[in-house]
User: What shape does this take?
Amino acid sequence: MQLALWTYEGPPHIGAMRIATAMTGVHYVIHAPQGDTYADLLFTMIERRDARPPVTYTTFQARDLGGDTATLFKTAVAEAYARFQPQAMLVGASCTAELIQDDPGGLALALGLPIPVVPLELPAYQRKETYGASETFYRLVRACVSSTPTATTGAPVSCNILGPTALGFRHRDDVTEVTRLLEGLGVAVNVVAPLGASPADLARIPEATFNIVLYPETALTTAMWLERQFGQKFVNIPPIGVGATRDFIKAVAALAGIDATEYMTRHTSRLVWYSRSIDSTYLTAKRVFIFGDATHAIALARVASEELGYEVVGLGTYAREFAREVRAAAALYNVEPLISDDYLDVEAAIKAASPALVLGTQMERHIAKRLGIPCAVISAPVHVQDFPARYSPVMGFEGANVLFDTLTHPLMMGLEEHLLGMFREDFEFSGDTAPSHLGGGTIVAPQAEIKADAATWDIEAERELRKIPFFVRGKARRNTETYAAQQNLRVIKIETLYDAKAYFSGDAA
Assistant: This one.
C-alpha cells in the first residue's frame, strides 16, 4: 500500500539492482511478474544512464502460474548467460515472485554455469532497499574473493574504496574527490567497488592494506567480514564536512603509517572566511531539521552545528538498520531522534519543530515546499536534479565547499521574503506572493497544532506579525502566544504583540 504513496526505500531487489547496475561483468536475473520491470526507469531516467540496467526479468503472467514457472526461470537464466556472457550472475526473486517459492538460487545452481552464481535471499516483506544493497555486495564479494589471497609483502600502501553504488547521492563525484585526497596522501587505490568494479576486481580486494567504508549502509557488513577473514582494518568515517574530513585523514594516516600534518596544512575548505563575514552573524543559530539516510543525516548535523553555527532541532533517518547511530547523534544535539519511514511522521515532526531550513531527501523537499520552508536535498532518495552535470561532491574539502553553498544559499535566498514583507503594502506587490525559491504560489507558514483553549489572532495583529522579518517571525509568534496564555487572553491584538515583545525582552515593568 505504501508504494501507492511515497516511500523512502523500495523492496530489497531494488538494492540488488543498484549493485548490479554499478558494476561491470555482472548480470542479475529476477524471477518477477510482468509489471515489475518498472525498476529500470529509476536508472535510465533519474540517473540518466545511457544503457538499461544489466537485468533480465522472467516476466511471468497470471496464466503461467498454472504451469511450470520453475522451468521458465531456468530458461531465462540460461538465455541470459548465453546472450550477455557475464563474469558473475546474481539470481533472485521480486517481492511478488517470492510468494510462489520457486527457489531461484537452487534452480540456477542446477544449471552448472561456469561462472559464480550468487543466490540472493532477500526477504521482501521484512527488509528493504538498503539491506538489499548491503547483502548483495557482501554475497558477491564472498563469491569472488579467494580464501587464500595473493601475498602482498613489500607492496606499497594501498586501500579499497567500498560502498558507492548506482543511484547513490553524489557517489560518482565523491569517489573522484576521495581518490584525489588519498593520492595526495600517497595512498594508492587498489579497487573501488561496487561502482565501476568487475568480479575480477572484487577478487583483488584482499591485496590492499586496508579498506575505506565510504557509505556504511552498503559496505560496512562487507568490510567487517574482510577484517575477520583477512585481517584488513577499515576506516569508517565518511569525510563529509571539514571536521570529518580531517578525522578521516588522521584515521587513514594511522593505518597507512604516514604523517599527514603537512597535507592538512596545505589543504582546507574555502569556508574559513565564513566565520569572519557578516553572513555568519546573519545565519548563526538558524533552526535546521535534518532527515535522510544515516550517513548523510549524521554528517550534516555535525556540519550544520559545528561548522555553520546552526541549531539542530530535528534529526532522523528512515534506515532502521542504523537507528542506534542516529539516536547517539541526536543525543549530542539534545533532540528526540526520528526513526521512521512514514513521510507523514516526518512532515508532522517538521511542523512541530518550525525550522528555518530543512535538509533532507526529495520527499522532504516536497514537504518543505508545501510548508513554505527553504530546503536542500542532502540524501537519497533522489531525483534527476540530484545528478548534476557539474562536478559536485559532498565529501572531502571540495565537498565541504559544496555543502557550504548547499546549506547557506536557501537561507540567503530567503531575504527575498523579507523584502516582500517590507513592501507588502505597496500596490506593485502582492502580499500573498511566495519567494521564488519556494516554488511560487502562496505562502503557507508551518503551524503548530492548535490547542482548544489557545488564543486566536485578530486580523490586524496577524498583519502586523507578517511585517516582522521571516527569520524571527516564528519566535515572535511563539512568544506572543505564550504571553497570551499566561495573561489568560482569548484574542491576540496588536497591543498584545508589543506587550509580549516588551515582556520577553525584559522591558516590562
